[in-house]
Amino acid sequence: MPAPTSSGRVDGRDPDLNTQDPRPNVQGPTPNTQHQRLTLSSVLGLYIHVPFCAAICNYCNFNRGLFDAGLKDRYVAALLAELERAADGSPVDTVYFGGGTPSLLDPGEIAAIIERCARSWALASDSEITLEANPETVTSERLAGFRASGVNRLSVGVQSFRDEELGRLSRLHSAARATEAFHMARTAGFSNISLDLMMGLPQQNEAEWLESVEALIDLGPEHASLYLLEIYPNAPLREAMAIGHWSVTPEDEAAGMYLSGLDRMDRAGYVQYEISNLARRGRESRHNLKYWTDGEWLGFGCGAHSTRNDARWRNLASTEEYVSAVAAGRSAAIDRRTLSAEARLEEALFMGLRLSAGLDVRAVHTRYGVDVWARYGAELHPFVDQGILHYDGRALGLTRTGMLVAHEVMTVFIR
Length: 415
Ligand code: SF4
Prior knowledge:
It contains 14 helices and 17 strands. By secondary structure, the protein is α/β, with parallel strands linked by helices. It folds into two domains: 271 residues, pyruvate-formate lyase- activating enzyme, CATH 3.80.30; 73 residues, Arc Repressor Mutant, subunit A, CATH 1.10.10. It starts with 43 loop residues before the first strand and ends in a 5-residue tail after the last helix.
């Protein structure tokens, strides 16, 4: 049984909606019934990609490159221009800075981008504005600056609270630095913080994984994302593993890590609301929920994807090409295509199934005119019998162990 990986990670960074991944099992606990029912999103979100990093981690397959001050200046200017050209005054209630390492931008640059968003769209006064941050990039002053700029949610890439593991991943920070960054963020006024951890790291065993989970719980963030490390074919980490004689975590052990980590989080009072995400009540990522609840968003910056009005497109992936196109007054958008109602429905089903609360079948019926159970029930019923799916006439979702075999279930929706 595979554990959830980051490949289906549809967070703010250019989500690849064609590679949705699921996971889970048989006979898992039923979904947390305390969790609020999640309905389909309707208000627009903005995703802003910042592709710069201080160093490139040996496992990373995101759209990123090394920080260059001159290129960064031109990039921010391009972002501001792209935002202005796309402005249409529509309501917006989330802004998400993903990367890369958005916390490498100066607070003044983040403030200018947020201000441009507010000028270009009807940005709700209670908008969720998230900045992804790496621990080594923040200081008390910079964090205070980000907070003053309007950022009200931090998503910190911790990955592990064990230095040995961080070293194997070539991360620039230590566990102590991550802890210090968290406390500095609290002092700077951040009351909504998410921490990312990865499981299945080279040489990691379950007890070591749980050490990191416990360390996270001790800090008490409002939100946590737990992912399985995925090692893409040409990742430098593969060579490091060969040289260091490090082993990858076997699939069944990774599944055990996933379940034990979630169990520990349950006991600490966190509520799992998506395959890889947990939160204190009311602190789910409003932006990422747009991806999982058939919402709409506009992406800005290199490689950013957009979905709006039944159309999808993405921006040029290369930072230089993106900057050149925008500076020359051209659109950076490519691969624009219209999504058929069938394609949107399929995606809404795939993505909705990632949620612990399940897919709201009545909302799907209202939006697409399709009775999900009438159409797919014969094929889904065996999964319910096996404890992989739960269905109560309103919500259709994976049980926790069902999350380990999500791909199997999702194939039902492909016609
Ligand atoms: S900091 Fe994040 S985006 Fe940058 S190289 Fe490392 S994993 Fe990739």
